[in-house]
Description:
This protein is of the alpha/beta class. The protein has a single domain (2-33, 84-223), classed as Phosphatidylinositol (PI) phosphodiesterase (TIM Barrel), CATH 3.20.20. The protein has helices spanning 18-24, 66-69, 84-90, 107-114, 128-132, 149-159, 173-181, 194-203, and strands at residues 2-6, 30-37, 43-45, 96-101, 121-125, 139-145, 163-166, 185-188, 207-210. An 8-stranded parallel beta barrel has the order 1-2-4-5-6-7-8-9. β6, α6 (149-159) and β7 (163-166) form a beta-alpha-beta unit. The protein is globular. Mean pLDDT is 95; it is low at 218-226.
Amino acid sequence: MEIIGHRGCPVYGPENTIAAFKTASEYVDMIELDVQRCQTGELVVFHDTALSRLTRLDGAVPAVPWHKLSSVTIGDSTATIPRLSDVLSILPSEVGINIEVKHGGMAEEIESLVETISNRIIVSSFIPHALTEFTTDTIECGYLFDSEWESQIEIAQSLGCDAVHPAYELVTPERIEKAHASGLQVNAWTVPDTKTARVLQQYGVDGAIVDDWTVVETPHPMHVETQTIA
């Protein structure tokens, strides 16, 4: 089971920042990050539409120009909001990159940016039409959802996705088996603790999206008890 560092694993650094990605890249198989377009057109790495949760700046990312966003610090840290191009340039080639697109209209630019690197790339989104904009075979697509397993699997199949990214609470062994039979990998989010990670690994989940990479272990098989997700 792959370890996918959600927003660069914010347990160890301010989320979606260069500092967090550099640290997490030493411990995870793949980095997950969020991308949206700011007012002046740059693709920036930031999860929320509103800036207020993580910064001292009011307003929304799509309404703020890059020259202003670039100097905004995250929380009490000195880390700033990066552009996608900045992040791609610092991640080791052996670390995969899961780019969650927060809206449509970014596919062409993202495809151009990742052409220059050799990392494995997955683009994921809750928004079906944002995924259909990606046309290159070198980028995998993952459909995000948090409810209604069967209907969402059908959507993922209709989109031609390579993976589904469900909320971890939805996962069962039977659902994993059916997803795999349909050619879909399953990367579950956001896995909260070691017990849950062990259960998901037993179920056959392909990737665990986590805030803390230490929740994922590889216990000796004889010590693994059959459990269920609470």
